[in-house]
Design goal:
Elements (H helix, E strand, L loop, with lengths): L11 E5 L3 H6 L5 H22 L3 E8 L7 H24 L3 E5 L7 H14 L6 E8 L1 H17 L10 H6 L11 E4 L18 E4 L9 H12 L9 H7 L1
Bound molecules: 3-methylbut-3-enyl trihydrogen diphosphate (IPE) (2 copies) and magnesium ion.
């Protein structure tokens, strides 16, 4: 922790939490055991991020494609999510964390949706870190619903055609209240984005680690952040220009 520069932390950190199932299967355990262990990692990373002063943490917890998994796994994941929310809201209050969700919430089971609504309402006045869970989230679906709303607004004459801009498109996404991620971590060795925040990660720094999510420890987390801090974000410019700007 001492090695990290507090001035150079990502303002928005996004994580694709992957590898729970393989972690369990490698140990001859049921996949759900890996998911349960993964929740412990969530606790660690949420706590450390909040302590470090990271302002936005977004965790990919369940994709729109994950609904196609075996029913037993989907059910178990939903139950785990509900239990997490019931238990963690207290800790969120203690740590001044505001809870948010991106994704198509209408797909979630009624009881999970109520737990989500409750956690959002309870923590709405908190001013510390914003913890966003991507639930039933798919980036193409997000862009599609944004376009639908935009086209409707333009056709209804509510938005003039010449007002269309990149920022306006961003404002119709689920992430309208959140800045684009500075850093994206994916665990488990897969080198893909899996339909996560496609529009938002245009200039995000990407980090892939072989470590499965249940094994992603505090040390691994700090290692990832140190890696981020050693990078130069150029946004298409050359090094000299970037240095002069600082
Ligand atoms: C990530 O772990 C959690 C979810 C997608 C819900 P996985 O369940 O994808 O684990 P692997 O990738 O099969 O090991
Ligand atoms: C991405 O992981 C979704 C989450 C971490 C919630 P997956 O395990 O679903 O992704 P793929 O199928 O390996 O691309
Ligand atoms: Mg996976």
């Amino acid at each position: 922790m001492q090695k990290l520069d507090p001035e150079k932390l990502p303002r928005h950190l996004a994580i694709i939490m992957d590898g729970n199932g393989r972690w369990a299967q490698e140990r001859m355990l049921k996949r759900i055991v890996g998911h349960r262990k993964g929740v412990e990692t969530v606790r660690t990373v949420v706590e450390e991020s909040s302590l470090l002063g990271i302002k936005f943490l977004t965790l990919f917890a369940f994709s729109s494609e994950n609904w196609l998994r075996p029913k037993t796994e989907v059910r178990a994941l939903m139950a785990l999510l509900k239990a997490y929310l019931a238990k963690e809201t207290t800790r969120m209050m203690a740590n001044n964390i505001r809870f948010a969700v991106i994704g198509d919430r209408s797909d979630l089971p009624e009881d999970v949706n109520s737990a989500v609504a409750e956690a959002i309402a309870k923590t709405s006045q908190n001013s510390g870190m914003v913890l966003t869970l991507a639930l039933s989230y798919g980036s193409r679906q997000e862009i599609y619903q944004a376009l639908t709303q935009l086209v409707d607004a333009v056709l209804a004459g509510k938005i003039p055609r010449e007002k269309l801009s990149e920022d306006l498109i961003s404002s119709f996404l689920y992430t309208s209240e959140i800045p684009d991620p500075d850093f994206l971590i994916r665990t488990s060795g897969e080198m893909r984005i899996s339909n996560f925040l496609l529009w938002q990660i245009a200039y995000t720094e990407l980090y892939f680690t072989e470590v499965n999510w249940p094994d992603f420890s505090k040390e691994e987390f700090y290692k990832a952040l140190a890696n981020y801090q050693a990078r130069e974000r150029r946004y298409g410019l050359i090094s000299d220009q970037v240095r002069k700007r600082r």
